[in-house]
Amino acid sequence: MSILIFSFGILGLIGLEASAINFSMDAEARNQAALLASEIASSMWLAGNVSTAIANQAAWQTAAANTTTYALNNPTVTIVAVPGLVNTAGVNNAADITISWKPPSRATTSSNSTLTTRVILP
Predict the structure, then answer these.
(1) Could you please report the per-residue DSSP string of the chain?
(2) Fewer CB within 10 A of the end CB, N or C, for the chain?
(3) Residue 3: HSE in the Cβ half-sphere, 13 Å Cα cutoff
(4) How far apart are CA 48 and CA 43, in angstroms?
């Protein structure tokens, strides 16, 4: 009887380890998405406008798909100007950066993980 109870305990620990690995992989992918969004936001700040990053959206999509740099599975990068947020010169100075990817732990489901960052330049 004690061997049976011990076996159930070991099986429970193995299940917990599998869950911990999935959570760790999801956290790594979210960290990579945040890093990519930060790089896009930095390029906006350096350029002084959001239109440069929007125009180079295809290049950011290609960079996100680079598996040696980012650990994202099937990523999609979308950069959209936020209407109505303009600076004193009348130039749109805000954009939403949305990065979606399919986490490895949910490869069989249709749900994606998404990270959205809003950048507002002075």
Answers:
(1) -HHHHHHHHHHHHHHHHHHHHHHHHHHHHHHHHHHHHHHHHHHHHHHTSSHHHHHTHHHHHHHHH-TTT---SS-EEEEEE-TT-B-TTS-B-EEEEEEEE--GGGTTSS--EEEEEEEE--
(2) N
(3) 0
(4) 8
Extract the tokens encoding 104: 């490895």
pTM above 0.85, yes or no: no
Rounded CA separation 120/122 (Å):
7
* List of residues 6+ apart from 50 with CB closer than 8 A: 44, 79, 81, 92, 93, 94, 95, 119, 121
Residue 94's DSSP bridge partners are: 120
The answer to whether the beta carbons of residues 85 and 92 sit under 8 Å apart is yes
What would the two tokens of residue 71 be?
């650990």
Phi, psi for residue 90 in degrees, rounded to 5: 85, 15
